[in-house]
């Protein structure tokens, strides 16, 4: 019996080794963030009624009760308090909606002042809103971080929240504080505490090295997953952030793999010699869509995330590819060239009721359903701009105008769209993001050229 | 002129078709690299089954077929090239080969991967239809990942929309 088990293990081990040969060291999984049940603030209406980008927000350094050593900052918790305020400031500034003032231009409040602000200090600086916070090093080396938002005109607290995080996750507490402030002031859902998977690109146009990489929503904690030996493309985070699906040429053919972040190993999405493309998770993480070409004809399939028999959802001659679930998981928007050119279609999650929704005269590609459900972002593959439309195909709006913009991906709150832009001739690529309104276009800093962004949901 | 009817080897019709054809990019792509030509052993020339042997036998221009934007049909000019390739494979039964399908940069990444696969299969299917055993032909799509012409203009894109035949050593 032992002998049989051993030999069957050997059989499995060989292909696994081949599949994993492009992978770097496994990366640590993120720790859990515990939200502290602080006394809720009173329900207060924000006093400010002008444009948010005129809103002065003062974000001084977070105070600490006792400056102690922490793995999160070599100078201790007091220095970490300033870093926290810097991260929050840059989150809110880069978003384009606010003009915050950070800790380097402000006095440092004391620990006692966090819950009892010295109002005159801040009103003299023209601040309409005040963010205060504290950081406390615990005996178990974890950090307790509190975040408070005050309305200066009302001299009242608007909202507060606290979190216990591992030292390595200190930036998550800062993003959660930025999310708290953003949500309270705009009424929108949070998005800063999230991650992005993308493809890092280097080298000349005819010999690009393309590596799977991940980073926080602000570009921090950047890590490469693959070594670059094989071309990697089109990643997608699973909704629980435990897996990444992506395309790799690691065995010489384009195939979709599911990479397990905890174990650092990966498996094929389906055991088939056919090429597979375009992985997409369902919002609940239970299903994975992919496209597979059989004799040159590409159709969309659905497979359970835990394995099992794939189900083919499309069967028309031509290329049916991509696919993005509606937030409730009931429908899928995808692209097909069954009409002669790329157009966007919607079907029920079981493949029934396929109907075309794009009729604008341009090619419609890479549709992505907004997490709010009210919009579909897509690549206009005639002019190569990022556009949005309603789920029925109406109200088309063009958001960008680069030489070649493609592959939109939504922020967790459905207010911002990220995509990648290719330069004419040089082929250089970079990640950009733009508001749903078409405002606040900005380039995301990445260590090298970047493409194929995939923005995950709010971290669990 | 896109029909698959066996217009075949009729020279006259081929010339007529070539005249109104889209393709024939001004510069032909360089021969595929990394063919690992064996160390030259005196006067023998490239060994059977090497890419150099294949290119010498059929001519570089006959190892690659080109496509219109978004298209994957094998027209008369492509058929001539593939017939030339089929002759080589019939004369060298031990040689297997890969057809690489490619697309130009003016397409979205995933669609281009599927389009490259469709182009490679179109070339394969034609070869199979004229007698090359399917099990000797492997296809792989590189989408827009491996351009041979680096400019961002029509001439470059026309060279990159291609299916290239590479021998497997």
Number of helices of chain B: 5
The number of distinct β-strands of chain B equals: 4
N-to-C order of helices and strands of chain B: HHEHEHEHE
| Mean of all residue-level pLDDT scores of chain A | 92
Report the strand count of chain A: 31
Total count of domains of chain B: 1
Estimate percent helicity of chain A: 10-25%
Spans of chain A of at least 5 consecutive residues whose pLDDT stays below 50 are: 1-14
Percent of residues in β-strands of chain B: 5-15%
Helical content of chain B stands at: 25-40%
CATH architecture of chain B: 2-Layer Sandwich
Shape of chain B: globular
Q: Structurally, how many domains make up the residues of chain A?
A: 2
Q: What would the average pLDDT of chain B be, to the nearest integer?
A: 84
Q: Going by CATH, what is the homologous superfamily of chain B?
A: OmpA-like domain
Describe the protein's topology.
The complex is a heterodimer of chains A (460) and B (169).
Chain A: H1 2-19, E1 34-36, E2 56-58, E3 63-64, H2 77-94, E4 99-101, H3 119-123, E5 129-137, E6 143-151, E7 156-165, H4 170-186, E8 194-202, E9 209-216, E10 223-224, E11 232-237, E12 243-248, E13 255-260, E14 265-268, E15 276-281, E16 287-294, E17 297-304, E18 311-312, E19 320-325, E20 331-336, E21 343-348, E22 355-356, E23 364-369, E24 376-380, E25 385-389, E26 397-398, E27 404-410, E28 416-422, E29 429-435, E30 442-443, E31 449-458
Parallel strand pairs in A: 2-4, 2-5, 3-5
Antiparallel strand pairs in A: 1-7, 5-6, 6-7, 8-9, 8-31, 9-10, 11-12, 12-13, 13-14, 15-16, 16-17, 17-18, 19-20, 20-21, 21-22, 23-24, 24-25, 25-26, 27-28, 28-29, 29-30
Helix pairs in contact in A: 2-4
Chain B: H1 11-19, H2 51-58, E1 64-66, H3 76-91, E2 96-102, H4 109-129, E3 137-143, H5 154-160, E4 162-168
Parallel strand pairs in B: 2-3
Antiparallel strand pairs in B: 1-4, 2-4
């Amino acid at each position: 019996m032992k002998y049989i088990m051993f030999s069957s293990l050997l059989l499995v081990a060989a292909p696994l080794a081949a599949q994993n040969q492009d992978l770097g060291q496994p990366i640590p999984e993120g720790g859990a963030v515990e939200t502290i049940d602080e006394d809720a603030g009173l329900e207060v209406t924000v006093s400010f009624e002008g444009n948010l980008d005129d809103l002065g927000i003062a974000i001084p350094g977070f105070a600490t009760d006792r400056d102690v050593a922490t793995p999160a900052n070599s100078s201790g918790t007091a220095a970490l308090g300033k870093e926290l305020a810097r991260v929050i400031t840059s989150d809110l500034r880069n978003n384009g909606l606010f003009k915050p003032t950070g800790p380097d231009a402000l006095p440092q409040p004391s620990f006692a002042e966090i819950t009892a602000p010295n109002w005159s200090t801040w009103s003299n600086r023209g601040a309409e809103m005040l963010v205060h916070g504290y950081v406390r090093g615990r005996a178990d080396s974890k950090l307790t971080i509190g975040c408070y938002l005050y309305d200066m005109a009302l001299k009242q607290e608007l909202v507060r929240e606290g979190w216990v995080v591992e030292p390595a996750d200190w930036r998550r507490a800062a993003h959660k504080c930025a999310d708290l402030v953003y949500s309270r002031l705009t009424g929108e859902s949070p998005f800063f505490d999230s991650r992005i998977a993308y493809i890092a690109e280097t080298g000349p146009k005819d010999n690009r090295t393309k590596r799977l990489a991940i980073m926080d929503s602000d570009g921090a904690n950047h890590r490469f997953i693959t070594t670059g030996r094989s071309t990697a493309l089109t990643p997608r985070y699973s909704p629980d952030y435990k897996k990444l699906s992506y395309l790799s040429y690691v065995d010489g053919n384009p195939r979709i793999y599911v990479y397990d972040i905890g174990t650092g190993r990966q498996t094929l999405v389906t055991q088939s010699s056919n090429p597979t493309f375009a992985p997409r998770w369902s919002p609940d993480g239970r299903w994975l869509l992919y496209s597979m070409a059989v004799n040159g004809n590409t159709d969309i399939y659905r497979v359970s995330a835990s394995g099992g028999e794939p189900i083919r959802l499309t069967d028309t001659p031509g290329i049916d590819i991509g696919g993005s679930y509606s937030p409730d998981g009931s429908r899928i928007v995808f692209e097909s060239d069954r009409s002669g050119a790329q157009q966007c279609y919607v079907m029920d999650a079981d493949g029934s009721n396929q109907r075309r929704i794009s009729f604008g005269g341009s090619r419609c590609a890479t549709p992505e359903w907004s997490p709010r459900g009210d919009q579909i972002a897509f690549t206009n593959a005639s002019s190569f701009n990022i556009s949005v439309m309603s789920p029925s195909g109406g109200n088309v709006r063009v958001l960008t105008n680069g030489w070649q913009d493609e592959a939109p991906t939504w922020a967790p709150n459905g207010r911002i769209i990220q995509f990648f832009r290719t330069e004419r001739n040089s082929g250089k690529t970079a990640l950009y993001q733009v508001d749903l309104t078409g405002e606040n276009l900005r380039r995301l800093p990445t260590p090298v050229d970047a493409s194929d962004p995939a923005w995950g949901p709010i971290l669990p | 002129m896109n029909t698959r009817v066996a217009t075949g080897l009729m020279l006259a019709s081929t010339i007529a078709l070539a005249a109104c054809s889209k393709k024939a990019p001004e510069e032909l792509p360089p021969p595929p690299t990394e063919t690992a030509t064996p160390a030259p052993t005196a006067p023998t020339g490239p060994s059977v089954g090497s890419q150099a042997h294949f290119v010498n036998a059929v001519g570089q221009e006959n190892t690659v077929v080109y496509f219109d934007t978004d298209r994957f049909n094998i027209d008369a000019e492509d058929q001539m090239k593939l017939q030339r390739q089929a002759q080589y494979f019939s004369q060298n039964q031990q040689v297997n080969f890969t057809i690489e399908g490619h697309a130009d940069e003016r397409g979205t990444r995933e669609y281009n991967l599927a389009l490259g696969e469709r182009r490679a299969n179109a070339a394969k299917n034609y070869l199979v239809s004229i007698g090359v055993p399917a099990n000797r032909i492997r296809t792989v799509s590189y989408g827009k990942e491996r351009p041979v012409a680096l400019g961002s203009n029509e001439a470059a894109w026309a060279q990159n929309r291609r299916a290239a035949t590479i021998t497997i050593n």
